[in-house]
Amino acid sequence: MHDNSDAPRGRRSESAGPDRTRPDGTRLTETGPDGTRGDGTRPVGTRSAPARSHADRSAVAGPGRRRLAALALSGVVGFGVIAAVLVNSGQHPEGAGLVDEEEESGQFLTGKKAGYLPNDWFHDQRAFPERDYAAAAPIAAMEQARADRIGVFGDRAFPADGPSSAGERGADTWSSVGPINIGGRLTAVGVHPSSPNRFYAGIAAGGVFRSDDAGASWEPIFDDTAVLSVGAIALGPTDPDEVWVGTGEANASGDSFAGDGVYRSTDGGDTWEHRGLEESEHIGRIVVDPTDPSRLYVAVLGSLWLPGPDRGVYRSTNAGLDWEQVLFVSDSTSVVDLAIDPSDPSRIYAAAWERLRGPSRRKVGGLTSGVYRTTDGGDSWTELTSGLPSGSNVGRIGLSVAASSPNIVYAIYADDPGYFMGLYRSTNSGTSWTQVNDAGLGDVFASYGWYFGNVQVSPTDPNDVYAYGYDLYRTTNAGGSWSQRWAGAHVDHHDFWIDPNNASRQILVGDGGVYLSSNDGGTWSHVETLPITQFYAGTVDPQNVNRIYAGAQDNGTNRTTTGSDDDWIELFGGDGFYPLVDPTNSSHIWVEYQYGNLYYSSNDGGSWNGATGGIPGSERRNWSTPHVHAPSAPYTRYFGTYRLWRSSTNTSWTSISPDLTDGTDDANHTITTIAVARSNSSRIYVGTSDGRVWTTGNGGANWTRIDTGLPVRWVTRVAVDPDDDQTAYVALSGYRWGETTPHLFRTTDAGASWTAIDGAGLGGPLPDAPVNAIAIDPEDGRRLFVGLDVGVYVSNDTGSTWAPFGAGLPVCVIHDLNFHESTRTLTAFTHARSTYQIAVPAVSDVVDGGGSVGVESLAGGGRLAVVGANPFVDRIEVSLRAPAGEPEGILTLVDVSGRLLAERRVSLRAGDTPASPGADGTRVSLEDADGIGRLARGTYYLRWASVDGALWASERVVRVAR
User: Fold this and answer.
1) CA distances from residue 917 to 92, 483, 847, 910 in whole angstroms, order as listed
2) Is this prediction's pTM over 0.70?
3) What are the DSSP calls for 650-662, one per residue?
């Protein structure tokens, strides 16, 4: 997240106000002058809801015993404190990008930047120009991408063994190049008390990793599921192999992807089964009854952006086969936390949180926020009010029950807009509460307590309590006094575990990754074996493919000089964005942090100087401000605010355009992408966050707006053909459920006309997901690579057909791509799983088959070729061959979720094997009699396999209406 250490924060006065109307128009039930009963509680009626059965899904096979290379844990990692104060308000002001004198002096900066709240840039891209998008849209795109990978690569589709060279894993396989030692945002941690060295780590947008050696090495175990956004992890109370995962991060940041419900594993995470709550979107906590593992409760937040009926507490009494909504407060009130009394599991506490976000507002509190209790296992609930805050500014709440004295309960409060509000203690199971001496906790949430905020009681001592958010604090006297306990750990903490068998052994997870302590949090060691960094943008040194630079969420600008995954360093702080390396001198580097704060080093990062000379501090800039080199003029760079700026020096700029946006004065009306033609350095293309595309053919003297015919979407990338400045590409963000608006367009006349090239008119072949990056093969402009929210795709025919590129890449957000020309290496910068590289074969090495590499010969010579029409209407005709010695095989047709639609056993004619090739192969047609005529319009997959299931080949087909 983003540092607010110098922004105003601390206790703020309550503003209870007389208006007690909920956002849904109802009024709070009042039975006394203050709306409470005599015992300090308010009865709350349980919303009647029918039992819900989860959709029938087959078990999802997990990746098995996957393992990252074991590496020794590093020592304590220190994070510097930013001395410079940029702004004092929590929001970025008009005229973003202020730089003060101390920063311009060249002082080395590290750690987090002051003055910026977590930003909604990630969401705004995908929602523009609407307020929101349906959560089902990205999930459907991920499911299609997952099916694409399985269809092409079979059991090699997802990461298997962690970092290894392409030669070890296959020429068409991505290799993770880290970092594994920097960290990234984790949201949940789980450890079973009887298996204390087995850790489960939930990544904000990167799935679940498992360690069996206390964090020395890890394996991804959730990549085969439909979504990778994780909100909660819970372990079965009696069986260490029972694991529950709630999908959809609960921390309300702009890049908190929605999930599709709850998953369960009964074999320690080797395989997973979906267990319902598809409409939950975001899950804050799962608690399992310690006496009955089939009985569990889930805290559901629902949509971050729109009101809805699916928020509240859900209960299952049959291990997730059916669910009942047992607590509903309002359509704008989520439940973010749950705590169960281990001595009486029918007593459960729930934290209700009224919150709703929009493009220009963040409501993170309200009258309906509060603590609720049930004493009958969820059949009825009561709001607890005696001694607890109330009013319109009550925000997020965290809860903890003291296992050693379950009548003692703690609740920590943030306010709206997010400052610390207070810590409260009950000694009578929540009936009444007292505020502890919490003056020392004023900074615990900085100014954005809605992003985290919780409290944890030691399992052995009810007076030993930890409060965590921006910082981590501890009291050993029930709140009488506090001390900081986060020395050596990154700020912004999201989950905390205390070993019930040894309370001095602890795990802290947050924006910096996983931290371990063996002395009650006195010191922390960073787990440096997890490839989970969330990158925004990156580059590769043109002179050395092993020198990789990337800007990360909350972890600055990072670099490796060896191409290894474990030796990355943080060069610069803040949230890192576009780094650049001088293509003629590798020691000349530019880095930036949020809102276009640009810095330059002439000595390989040894020292830094401000590099925005000539650009007014009030200049409107994007959260991720674009910064590029001219490919054929390496001493010329371009920088986008709402105007385009050019520089031929290291640190100063000249404006070369008017306002290229619609003129609205905020950071979402700015330039987002710049491309300069290699064949003509005077030809420049620019895209903006408000849907405009421009070009100049004379270096900026004149500009032409060229977005006629393009959808009004956030423009994520423009790219130019390396040999033809008239041919360019525009990539767009956005999710539009139920629409087929393309995300990728091509022009051959400098923007006078555009053609959609992502196949959306046919229901594919690119998944309906934002396209975030474009790379063009400089050897042949017909070969295009795109980075989407769901992975990397390739086309060998200028966008007519597409296929997933390379095995072994998780289905996660790809924010940037770099094609290293001299080594033909493609680098993908992910926003969840660090960085991957793959060797790109020469064009002459590409085989036919739907635009993919190697699709026709996945195993020993098997071949499948569509010889009839594709797209098809009511008949699919294919030619088949099998590996040597195979007399027959199985041809199947599946949909994007893997559901079997048609199957035929095929006996091959003599000569239809590679050992004795026939002229064409055995021809087979799937027709109406096979069920083809009943298929809906969309994308499907043919699979050609041995009788015992070994995949030989796969091909994509698309159905269109008659």
Assistant:
1) 67, 77, 18, 9
2) yes
3) SSB-EE-S---S-
